[in-house]
Design brief:
The chain is of the alpha/beta class. The chain has eleven helices and nine strands. Strands 1, 2, 3, 4, 5, 6, 7, 8 and 9 form a nine-stranded mixed sheet that branches. The relative contact order is 0.17.
């Protein structure tokens, strides 16, 4: 139900939706409900840095480039506090912890971070499928909680939401079961009143598919790795613009074909 088999099924599902769009000559978003937005606001997903001064500098850089929000991958209160001080009170700040803590430690961390007003803590608890503990952290830590990049199929998301574990669901289109399963998760999240903030720090078809999936929704951000890439298969077409948005592809299927010159340049002989 999870792991490499479901990842492979996700890839096949995305590819089949891409082909369906190309056969019909329409973009993916038209096949799955129709776009409500032509651009999606992006948040800068920072690497784990550790040093508060360097974190602050990267946050300021991202905001200057127009990003709508910041996500840290940090596990210390000074790191979170430094980011908030750098970006000011009006910018959403998310904290992805990558499952390092038990319940009591996660509750304490949430309380200690309260002053920095994070939009949510993401996956504070190990193991990630311990939804009962995650719900306890949400309740006792008094902060919103996000999870889902390590959850698979709508069935596991239903367990998560029924437990009251999350305020923000983060389906990952390349893990959850592809476009088909992502759509089911989104319907479920709407039924539970849970926001959809997908996991999408990708550079390939998964990122393009996520753009289409978010285009059919009224709200929600897209995750963009905050880094300088030496090359991109889609050129500058998926770059974040000066207003902090990424344009939704309008070509058939996923919308863009990979740059074959880039493929050749980086091909492993």
């Amino acid at each position: 139900r999870y792991g490499i088999t479901m990842f492979a099924i996700s890839a096949l599902d995305i590819a089949l939706w891409d082909l369906a769009g190309k056969v019909k000559g329409v973009p993916l978003h038209q096949l799955i409900g129709g776009a409500k937005r032509s651009t999606i606001p992006a948040y800068a997903s920072l690497m784990r840095i550790g040093n508060p001064a360097q974190i602050a500098a990267e946050c300021k850089k991202a905001i200057k480039l127009g990003y709508a929000a910041i996500k840290l991958h940090e596990t210390t209160v000074p790191a979170v506090s430094a980011a908030r001080e750098a970006i000011g009170p009006g910018v959403p700040l998310m904290v992805d912890m990558n499952c390092p803590l038990d319940g009591p430690a996660a509750i304490q961390f949430a309380r200690d971070c309260k002053q920095a007003a994070p939009m949510f803590l993401e996956e504070p608890v190990w193991p990630p499928e311990d939804f009962a503990t995650l719900a306890e952290v949400r309740r006792e830590g008094r902060l919103d909680i996000a999870a889902g990049e390590n959850a698979c199929t709508v069935h596991q998301f239903r367990q998560m939401m029924t437990a009251g574990a999350v305020s923000h669901a983060q389906p990952s289109v390349i893990k959850v079961g592809g476009v088909t399963e992502f759509l089911r998760v989104a319907v479920l999240a709407d039924e539970f009143g849970v926001q959809v903030i997908p996991h999408s720090p990708y550079f390939g078809p998964g990122f393009l598919a996520t753009l289409h999936l978010m285009a059919i929704r009224d709200a929600g951000l897209i995750e963009v790795f905050f880094m300088k890439r030496p090359a991109c298969l889609w050129g500058e077409r998926i770059a974040v613009d000066a207003h902090g948005h990424v344009a939704v592809p309008q070509g058939p299927g996923l919308g863009y074909e990979p740059d074959r010159d880039v493929m050749e340049k980086y091909r492993v002989a």
